[in-house]
């Protein structure tokens, strides 16, 4: 199962350095939306501790399934609170280690800078309704699979609360995870779609609309130490490192809210 997962989209980052005497390695499962930030955090973790963090990403649901089937991860950086809680209840993770490391945000994005034109003076909610219900919006709308991806679920909640879900339902295309969803939009296979704000934090304002947070349930993301990491020094230090001010700064730079 893990082999197939690697073939269809896992990207692992191996950060090597000098072989410090006490250096160790931890394997971290990362929800797809958080991967860009996690990569920077892993680099900083290595610089400060000499421990190596090897990151693998997939949709939130796939990571949960892999862990329950014995995937060799030490730490989970999930895209929700539910899956870490369920892993703890299944005695596959350390319940008292769980904490919220970030709260995510979603945005409507297009690779065509003329489509969204976010520079207008209309409120975001009104711009979203006009764009999504417009007869000009005849192409595909990409979202992550809401059954396994919290960001996909939040996208559907947004569409429902805007009152446009039924209007565009037939034109929705689903990515396996938020990374594939972004790829659909970037390559033009979907005219626009819903992605994590962290993925497009550096995109032009005219290409995105940040979704008002009252349109979807909060995207609180929890970290948890898995059983395999209990005796792993690098895993334990990585969990502590995620709570530091320097990591919180990185998290905020990628468009998330971070705990104080």
What is the general shape?
elongated
Widest beta sheet: strand line-up: 2-1-3-10-4
Structural class: alpha/beta
Compressed to H and E, one letter per element, the order equals HEHEHEHEEHHEHHEHEEEHH
Straight-line distance between termini: 38 Å
Largest sheet: 5 strands, mixed
Characteristic terms for this protein:
about 260 residues; alpha/beta; five-stranded mixed beta sheet; 11 helices; 10 strands; disordered N terminus
Give an overview of the whole structure.
With 260 residues, the chain is α/β, with parallel strands linked by helices. Helices cover 37% and strands 19% of the residues. The strands form 2 sheets. A 5-stranded mixed β-sheet has the order 2-1-3-10-4. The protein is elongated and about 60 Å long.
Brief digest:
This protein is α/β, with parallel strands linked by helices and 260 residues long. It contains 11 helices and 10 strands. It is 37% helix and 19% strand.
Topology:
Blueprint: H1 2-8, E1 25-31, H2 35-49, E2 52-58, H3 60-68, E3 75-77, H4 82-89, E4 99-104, E5 106-109, H5 113-116, H6 124-133, E6 141-144, H7 150-162, H8 165-168, E7 172-175, H9 178-186, E8 192-196, E9 208-210, E10 219-225, H10 233-241, H11 245-253
């Amino acid at each position: 199962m893990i082999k197939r997962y690697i073939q269809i989209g896992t990207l692992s980052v191996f950060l090597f350095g000098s072989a410090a005497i006490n250096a160790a390695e931890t394997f971290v499962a990362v929800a797809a939306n958080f991967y860009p930030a996690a990569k920077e955090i892993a680099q900083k973790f290595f610089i400060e501790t000499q421990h190596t963090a090897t990151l693998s990403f997939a949709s939130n649901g796939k990571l949960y399934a892999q862990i329950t089937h014995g995937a060799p991860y030490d730490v989970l950086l999930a895209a929700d609170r539910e899956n870490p809680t369920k892993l703890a209840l299944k005695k596959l993770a350390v319940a008292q280690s769980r904490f919220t490391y970030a709260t995510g945000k979603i945005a409507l994005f297009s690779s065509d800078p003329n489509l969204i034109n976010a520079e207008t003076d209309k409120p975001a909610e009104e711009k979203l309704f006009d764009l999504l219900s417009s007869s000009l919006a005849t192409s595909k709308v990409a979202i992550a699979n809401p059954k396994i991806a919290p960001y996909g679920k939040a996208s559907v909640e947004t569409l429902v609360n805007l009152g446009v879900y039924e209007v565009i339902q037939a034109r929705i295309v689903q990515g396996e995870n938020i990374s594939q969803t972004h790829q659909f939009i970037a390559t033009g296979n979907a005219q626009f779609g819903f992605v994590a704000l962290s993925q497009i934090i550096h995109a032009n304002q005219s290409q995105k609309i940040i979704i008002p947070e009252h349109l979807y349930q909060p995207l609180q993301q929890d970290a948890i130490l898995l059983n395999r990491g209990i005796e792993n020094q690098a895993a334990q230090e990585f969990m502590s490192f995620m709570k530091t001010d320097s990591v919180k700064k990185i998290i905020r730079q990628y468009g998330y809210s971070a705990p104080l």
